[in-house]
UniProtKB/TrEMBL annotation:
Its EC number is 2.4.1.-. GO terms for biological process: cell wall organization. It is a single-pass type II membrane protein. This is Hexosyltransferase. GO terms for molecular function: polygalacturonate 4-alpha-galacturonosyltransferase activity. Belongs to the glycosyltransferase 8 family. Pathway: Glycan metabolism; pectin biosynthesis. Keywords: Cell wall biogenesis/degradation, Glycosyltransferase, Golgi apparatus, Membrane, Transferase, Transmembrane, Transmembrane helix. It holds the Pfam family Glyco_transf_8. One of its GO terms (cellular component) is Golgi membrane. The chain crosses the membrane at residues 45-69. The keyword Transcription regulation does not apply.
Length: 541
């Protein structure tokens, strides 16, 4: 922050300095240049302006303070000035020109010095003025105060950017009332309404669950509303909905509610199966040892439940780093529901090819051509995420996810390798069963635990990037558009053209912090005439 007063004192420039406090150096970015029109204002107007603007714009306060000083000539009596500023600030009033120069000198001097630690600052600029009026400061103290307050002001603004991100993070990790209500009421319905408990799918359809002539979709989520949107949008966009089988995996606590929803709102002609993770015999501790470790690891518990700001050096952290740290702390990254996709070949032993969907996607096009794509022997059909222009979402390489200062990572991986996206993947389970992807995944999870999570921060994508290395087939980017939960500037044109849109990022469409103009693409698949949705006041303004 740098103040510059023009020699005539007719204008003031406030700039942010890029290289030191050199008055005339290059690299200044002018923030504000204000012309002073002192002569046209009465003293009284000035004083009110100071009071009003002081609260809004500290910069203008300085301006007006200086202008007032310059207006010394206009003030005919000593009393007129003395009442407001006191003799200590003004120095010798008979030489106003010199006084203004002195004040300028002091400001300049103070500007390049360190503000003393522990300086007690007034709470507001209003208070500064009133203390000044009460004759408490000499010019130098006043200038230091002013400087310190402006620094503090700037720091507060910077910190508020971090707290804004943090508030968003907590908003994104908590469950909105409406969605919670939906889950509770549907769970209640499960115990009270026999229709909500009816078998899914009906017994005569059971063989279809492992019939490879059908299109099998797998969705793993504890969010019933999100699941309903994924299923509804898939079916409405499909050219052959009668050939669709949905396998919905959920956790134990959501199972009853999820089952009620799909029992009461059958997605016919598609087939729906709802399974809780507790119902898969294969998901035992012996088979999934690492997850047990992951979920119980103390360090991780601290990591997730600690305060993300404590221990973060804000002045050494960029907003973007902070945002990605917060994202890595999202509780969903330690849930088994999120890791479950690495066990698809074992969980669905009879299926050959499946599409795995995240719960924050919307399907806008028939997806059956995905099954026709020749994966050329690869396991995972995914879109690459390093070829776009957008730095937040589409320029991701291995180095963005993995710590290449770690010797093991550096030894085995290429930092420039293009990353790919989870969210909508076509998996060839048949080819997958011939690989050691799961073992590799486990190996790296364990190594990361051993290294105190220094290889990557938690998440399911980094170990998957390693485990699927050499097993990924890149599909056309128009299949899967990412980033709708990250940025407001997603192109509507792209959104409308994409087969699948993905609200990855914090601003989920079911949260109040979702982006309003992107929400309709999701919300149009919410059935607002459904009693449960209506009674839970979901997404009502
Ligand atoms: C506030 O942030 C800006 C840009 O991020 C930085 O240049 C400035 O030094 C920060 N100010 C303080 C007081 O931390
Ligand atoms: C924060 O980082 C800045 C810049 O790297 C450094 O000068 C400062 O000492 C750090 N503060 C703490 C508390 O570590
Ligand atoms: C991990 O952290 C623990 C305690 O914080 C420490 O004793 C151990 O040496 C660390 N291990 C590695 C590989 O850094
Ligand atoms: C990356 O790995 C190095 C070496 O193990 C470690 O010192 C560093 O703290 C790690 N960085 C992060 C962000 O964990
Ligand atoms: C919406 O819900 C109502 C009531 O449950 C149901 O009758 C209707 O068929 C549903 N509409 C769609 C498009 O699913």
């Amino acid at each position: 922050m740098h103040l510059h007063f023009s020699p005539s004192m007719r204008s003031i420039t406030i700039s942010s300095s890029c290289n030191g406090s050199n008055n005339n150096g290059n690299g200044f970015v002018d923030l504000m240049k204000i012309k002073v029109a002192a002569r046209h204002m009465s003293y009284r107007t000035f004083f009110h302006t100071i009071l009003i603007l002081a609260f809004l714009l500290p910069f203008v306060f300085i301006l007006t303070a200086v202008v007032t000083l310059e207006g010394v000539n206009k003030c005919s009596s000593f009393d007129c000035l003395g009442r407001r500023f006191g003799p200590r600030l003004l120095g010798r009033v008979d030489d106003s020109g010199r006084m203004v120069r002195d004040f300028y000198k002091i400001l300049d001097e103070v500007n390049s010095m360190e503000v003393p630690d522990g300086l007690k600052l007034p709470d507001s600029f209003g208070q500064l003025i009133s203390e000044m009026n009460n004759n408490q400061y000499d010019a130098r103290t006043f200038a230091i105060m002013l400087r310190a307050m402006m620094d503090k002001f700037e720091r507060d603004i910077n910190e508020s950017k971090f707290s804004e991100l943090m508030n968003k993070h907590f908003a994104a990790s908590s469950i909105p009332k409406g969605i919670h209500c939906l889950s509770l009421r549907l769970t209640d319905e499960y115990s009270s309404n026999a229709n909500a408990r009816k078998q899914l799918p009906s017994p005569e359809c059971l063989p279809l669950l492992s019939d490879n002539s059908y299109y099998h979709f797998i969705l793993s989520t504890d969010n019933i509303l999100a699941a309903s949107v994924v299923v509804t949008s898939t079916i409405q966009s499909s050219l052959k909905p009668e050939k669709i089988v949905f396998h919905i995996i959920t956790d134990k606590k959501t199972y009853a509610g999820m089952h009620s929803w799909f029992a009461l709102n059958p997605a016919s002609p598609a087939i729906i199966e709802v399974k809780g993770i507790h119902q898969f015999d294969w998901l035992t501790r012996e088979n999934v040892p690492v997850l047990e470790v992951v979920e119980n690891h103390n360090g991780i518990r601290d990591y997730y439940h600690g305060n993300p700001v404590s221990g973060t050096n804000l002045s050494a952290t960029t907003l973007r780093d902070f945002a990605s740290k917060l994202q890595a702390r999202s509780p969903k990254y330690i849930s088994l529901l999120n890791h479950i996709r690495i066990y698809l070949p074992e969980l669905f032993p009879n299926l050959d090819k499946v599409v795995f969907l995240d719960d924050d996607v919307v399907i806008q096009r028939d997806l059956s051509p995905l099954w026709e794509i020749d994966l050329e022997g690869h396991v995972n059909g995914a879109v690459e995420t390093c070829k776009g222009e957008d730095a937040w979402v589409m320029s991701k390489r291995f180095r963005n996810y993995l710590n290449f200062s770690h010797p093991l990572i550096a030894k085995h991986l290429d930092p420039e390798e293009c990353a790919w996206a989870y969210g909508m993947n076509i998996f060839d389970l048949h080819a997958w069963r011939k690989t050691d992807i799961r073992e590799t995944y486990h190996f790296w999870l364990k190594e990361n635990l051993k290294s105190n999570m220094t290889m990557w921060k938690l998440g399911t994508l980094p170990p998957a990037l390693i485990a699927f290395k050499g097993h990924v087939h890149h599909i056309d980017p128009s299949w899967h558009l990412l980033g709708l939960g990250y940025q407001i500037k997603t192109s509507i044109d792209d959104v409308e053209k994409a087969a699948v849109i993905h609200y990855n990022g914090q601003s989920k469409p079911w949260l109040p912090i979702g982006f309003e103009h992107l929400r309709p693409y999701w919300a149009k698949y919410v059935n607002y005439s459904n009693d449960f949705v209506r009674n839970c006041h979901i997404l009502e303004p």
